[in-house]
Amino acid sequence: xxxxxxxxxxxxxxxxxxxxxxxxxxxxxxxxxxxxxxxxxxxxxxxxxxxxxxxxxxxxxxxxxxxxxxxxxxxxxxxxxxxxxxxxxxxxxxxxxxxxxxxxxxxxxxxxxxxxxxxxxxxxxxxxxxxxxxxxxxxxxxxxxxxxxxxxxxxxxxxxxxxxxxxxxxxxxxxxxxxxxxxxxxxxxxxxxxxxxxxxxxxxxxxxxxxxxxxxxxxxxxxxxxxxxxxxxxxxxxxxxxxxxxxxxxxxxxxxxxxxxxxxxxxxxxxxxxxxxxxxxxxxxxxxxxxxxxxxxxxxxxxxxxxxxxxxxxxxxxxxxxxxxxxxxxxxxxxxxxxxxxxxxxxxxxxxxxxxxxxxxxxxxxxxxxxxxxxxxxxxxxxxxxxxxxxxxxxxxxxxxxxxxxxxxxxxxxxxxxxxxxxxxxxxxxxxxxxxxxxxxxxxxxxxxxxxxxxxxxxxxxxxxxxxxxxxxxxxxxxxxxxxxxxxxxxxxxxxxxxxxxxxxxxxxxxxxxxxxxxxxxxxxxxxxxxxxxxxxxxxxxxxxxxxxxxxxxxxxxxxxxxxxxxxxxxxxxxxxxxxxxxxxxxxxxxxxxxxxxxxxxxxxxxxxxxxxxxxxxxxxxxxxxxxxxxxxxxxx
Length: 637
What we know:
The chain has 3 domains: 3-42 and 336-422; 56-214 and 252-330, no CATH class; 431-634, Nucleotide cyclase, GGDEF domain (Alpha-Beta Plaits, 2-Layer Sandwich), CATH 3.30.70.1230. It contains 20 helices and 26 strands. Strands 19, 20, 21, 22, 23, 24, 25 and 26 form an 8-stranded mixed β-sheet that branches. Strands 1, 2, 3, 4, 5, 13 and 14 form a 7-stranded mixed β-sheet that branches. Helix 2 crosses helix 13. The longest helix is centred in the middle third of the chain and has 33 residues, at 393-425. It is rod-shaped, with a radius of gyration of 44 Å.
């Protein structure tokens, strides 16, 4: 394997391992994050309830409630009075009545007789049953297709509570009223169907809906992910249609909560007492006729409440209303299954891998945070506006893990790469250039950039003669000591040394952003410092009877090509342009100890530096005479 591909290969292996671990956790250890996931779901419901459109309650359903107001007006709601309510609902032409009272034992003979007679006369009542805990928690068998007849219920030991035999006899259907709570005691999902003894048992909600639509429950098709209500005729429609109810991984329908118990949310909610005192129920036909009616005790004494994500002590009977409305309106929470989650994770992992290839560490972190925030926001928005229930933690936790792994990978290998560059180039590149390369290694990519810079060229007068007349060791010692003073002067002013040309030195200075004064100022400061250092060396060497050091310096400013230039076989980070030649020519025309400037440099140095115009001179390689200026020193005024 090519060593340059090794980090990439390691990253791919790391991502694959994280992906596989995420899938294993997703499929086999989902209960670990269930409690956190449930709380996030509750937050989604609350945000939707406050900020976006909520499911509507169907106008085909109403609730008739024995509420605290009814008990304040009529303390003794005996079975006889319940029977009167059922009779009045029948007179008002209610299509189907769900009687959410479990009448399991005999009490007063006359009251019981009146209640049973009301069931018989109405002929449209669905009665509740209660499953045993074992039956409720038994895994569903998807091979079952036939529903148990109402007459068979007394034979099942899986039924915990049954109504009186006469009540069952005159009921047109039954349904279990067990509510499925999550581990935190909150109801978020609902079992529409349970299986027992190779037969199916319908929920109270499903039985009410089937009776209202005159639908044969045996036409239902049940799979692990969906329940299909085939060939339904909905109210107000002449056409048959199928309704598909999405299920979660446990085979439950997720409840699409319409909101809290308010008149605005449940507009068709009536107090039982108001119907009880109505002498002619037909006057209420416009409110009660041809609808599903659910009668229940929602008083504090009745204790028939459950906790929901939006409200504690929510009346169970209104939850039935909510569920039936979800089905009639086809307004479902759509759970994203585990296979879809696997695909989503794979796509996100691949996206982070591409980010790793495209961006450096700092930008990778920035874009990762943006993507993470976007995924979180999208997760909430898809739920709030499209009712898509995408699990939060099974996606966000692997993403966080991936970001950490890829970030550590990038940081380690980028630092390793920078260290390699630094070790490779520090022996012949200036510190300022090394810093530039550390910040942006792309500057080493072949090809130059046109920049406005200042160029400094310095040379030692008479050094060739000195070399001819002295021992090479002495020449080397003099040159090393000289450059040991000149080079720090360049670096101290953020200069970059382009080349060492024997006793000559070529350096250039760049501007930060649009500050065009910076480069000529740094070049001028460098030139003055060089003259000062050269004078100190000249004095020292004169006392040692060594070389009489005299230097000349030329500075020019303008545009030049800067970058890794040259053929592929021999590239060099250098500068090319006429301004480079001009700096070299200026120093050669100057006298010892002089700093000559071109017109552009002089213009930018005034008034911070003192200069003197020398006039125009002919310079080899330039068609016109060049205005030349001499740098005297800094202007301290």
